[in-house]
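Sample entry (622 residues):
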Amino acid sequence: MSSKTEVRRPKTEGRRIMKPESRYRTRPPAPSPQLPAPRNQQLSTWYLLAALFLMEFAYFFLYGSHILFFQEQQHLFIYRSSFINDFFLKPGGLLDLSGKFLTQFYISKLAGSVILAAVLTLPAIILQSISKRLLTDSALSNLLVIIPSCILLLMQTHYYNLLMYDLGFLLVLAYFLISIFPEKKTWRYITLAFFPLFYYLVGAYALIFIGLYVIYCLFYIKSPGKYLYPLFLLASAGISILLFNRIFLLQSVKQLFLYPLPFINDSMHQRLFYFLAGFMILYPALCKLAGSVNLKRLNKSIITIIPGAIALCLTIVLLKTGYNSQTARVINLESLVFQGKWNEAIQYHERYPSENMIGQYFYNIALSESGQLCERLFHGKQDFGTASLFLPWSSEHINWGAHSFYAIGLINEAQRWAYEEMVVYGPRPQNMKLLVKSSLINGKYALSEKYTGILRNTLFYNSWAKKYEKMIGDTSAIHSDNDLGKKIKLIPQSDFFIFLDSPEQNLPVLVDETPPNREAFEYLMSWLLLSKEVDILVNNIRLMKKIGYTRIPEHIEEAIMIYYNSQGTFPDLGGLSISNGTVLRFEQYFGAYMKARQNPGTMKEKMQKQFGNTFWYYFHFK
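Predicted structure, serialized as tokens:
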């Protein structure tokens, strides 16, 4: 063994020995990938989206629940193939079907508020994913993401803005995200090849997608695909229109270009729709512009949330200023009347007066059904005279006109209104319920079975239908029912021709029936009160004891005092008498009236404050 130490060299096999000078070379910079937004910035975006969801939920749950009720009442979702198949017959029909399916859950205020809040928030979530592919980094990203949802919320405050309109915009964004997701050209062409199917699903909303995709290609595609993708898409659109116009569904060109876009007869709603459609089409260009905004020196996690927060605050302000309390009151009254909550409806109108004829009509229905029509008629607003007792026969009022005839026992006329509404607008909860009840009252059990069969094929009216289905053929059950039994007693004993144009002329015929129709009598007396026909009214007071009155209702007593004041004598009261309280109140009214005449400018206001709930005030100042 050698005494010299052998110096071992490191193995270099399979290794590359760098030259000394190569150690100091710098590598060429690799292209930097798009960096994800900082964690704090991403959290701020999700906080903003959560705030948006909560704002939408709170609005519909606390303030806009009348919209949920109104839209739920516009149709019945019937689980029958004959009902569902009709939606497959035109482009956009499946969008309508989806909207109607979800709308049936509006029967629950909680479920409806959650559904609407989710549908209105999802566009912002999808746009966030789209923005990650379009924006490098911008302080305006949250603002651009949240604007469409805010506009959709403002549009949804209109009670005729159906859920399918929101779903249309939502599906446009979802398809756009899918179409820009693939990197390979082949997959992009494949996604665009599904455009005819997408057009069949959403109808004319596909036109918004075309504009959106063309703008995206012009601003973000650098290869020849910048022009090839739009041309391919336009060719697919042309083929789609040709197929649905000439070959398959045979829809008109107008139908293909317009259905199911919202064209609500409201100028503000139309402006919001056009603004939203334009904003979505130009969204890629806006992202490109926003990407040029550089705020390096500022705290991005804070600055990015400010524009979005401002948009939310502005939306809240617009919701508050644009809230139509009168519309809400009418629909809330309608809801209470449809549920048979008569006293609650009366209290609601007296506490929150409706200035709308339909609202006052429902108030009078509630008074009649609870036997208080001549007791409290003027405790609520009466601005339309006799027009709020019977609605005119027209498509505008066909939804509600049946209820006044049902209240006074003209069941056949009520059934005619309900049937005509069904023909014009399709099956709705209220017209189907009224058709079931009127058929049972008239003993037309085959019709009762038909209409209960329709309601049994719904999700939320099934139990109601089963209850009345059990009564078919069981006259004792029908007579013992609180509502049906009461109406059977009001049915006229003899046939007569209905006065359609002047329904008040039917009232004397009903009053002359044996036994007398008390509900019709109160309608007649209310008609005379609202038309200020005091002389005719007092001639009918002699009939009251025969009808079953033990005391004269308050407003009829007030009319008697006006007659006494002008004639100096009381009419024939038929054995009844005026209460001392009414005589005393009239003396107070007369004294206040004479005193207030000294200052005509404030006379009406002073008298309304003290006697606004009396026939005397209505007689002199309405």
